[in-house]
Amino acid sequence: MPKQHEPASMDAMRIDKWLWAARFFKTRSIAKAAIEGGKVHHNNERVKVSRDVRVGMQLTIQQGFEKKTVLVKALSAVRGGAPIAQQLYEETAESIEKRELQASQRKLHNLARPDHRPSKKDRRDINRFKQENTQSWTFHEE
User: Fold this and answer.
1) Is 53 exposed, middle or buried (0-12, 13-18, 19+ CB in 10 A)?
2) Rounded Cα gap, residues 63 and 41, in angstroms
3) Which site from 15, 57, 106, 115 is most exposed, i.e. has the minimal number of CB atoms within 10 Å?
4) 13-95, superfamily in CATH?
């Protein structure tokens, strides 16, 4: 019987259980919901919850904004700590590069936002500006 903190040597296991053990999702039910929602792919095809995952498979997993492409290195039926979970998979270089690029683009996009909410005086000035510069269009029927 394998120790609790070592990856088990098995042939295949359910993909929802592996995603939970590899710490992609906090619970198996969340992993199941993500799979059913089309967030997990193998060979560019959606997978089913009961799909068996094997060592060497390449999976694409979407979590929020991030989309990771990982190679399954080991299987484990138990959920260990993060360092143990990271031994179960390896993210591809293209995936890391793509995620970093998207993260930097999101950061640049957020720079256009103001640093703080407008104060009461700022809001009054904005409203006054809008009232002075709004043209009211009225249609007259003849």
Assistant:
1) buried
2) 12
3) 115
4) RNA-binding S4 domain (3.10.290.10)
